[in-house]
Amino acid sequence: MSYTIEHYRASAEFLRARLGSFVPKVAMILGSGLGYLGDQVENPIAVDYKDIPHFKASTAPGHKGRLVFGTLEGKPVAVMQGRMHHYEGYSYEEVTYAVRVLRLLGCDTLVVTNAAGCVNTDWNAGDLMLITDQIKMFSESPLRGENLPEFGVRFPDASKLYTPRLRQVARDCAKTLGLTLREGVYFSRYGPHSETPAELPAARILGGDAVGMSTAPEVIVAGHCGMEVLGFTLLSNMAAGILDKPLSEEEVLTAGEHAREDFSALVRACLREM
Hints:
alpha/beta, five-stranded mixed beta barrel, Rossmann fold, globular, about 30% helix
């Protein structure tokens, strides 16, 4: 369907009624196996996606499917414990719907995370990657259709979707914490099947360092809305064909659990310094 500004406003008004005087400033989208940060929010107000007008359900493994509002490292946050994906049968407009609602609620910054396959063979599964840019050129834009000027212009610039200032904050925080933080390009693809070994060199040639099934649409919409963006990828596994073994959902979720301490420390440190 094509959402109108009234759809977004209806969702935002429903949430405002639940939040009272609380106004979130930082939106956070937590990917597969990384939703535990939402459980660390102080004075939480949790709202299931299914209860919010016009929201879609999150059906992917490791996604709780709820918004958690509260405070994290002194910042008023809105945490999405789970996201919607195109492979779940949703349009890109539906996938990114929540970003615009959170913008209407007051969020001016988006912190986005995902678990993805590692394409760069100089790195290892389990590494954390700061997203410097993204590639989403083989599928339609989430901005396709009538433009809503309440959010942004018809032809938005995409040269700095991942905010340079916030990327530097992440570098500084990783250094302080003694963490190795890779920097690279996120290559977005449809899913839900994994990339084939033949697709891997194509992603490399085009400049990808990690390959996944999310993130890029939400970041495009956040940029259109004028939000600053900080993105992290947990390189949960080596991409298909690098190692002689099949990929699995369990591997992704296990990697998220193993990275819990470092990932949480890094994201929380970045929040403190924003």
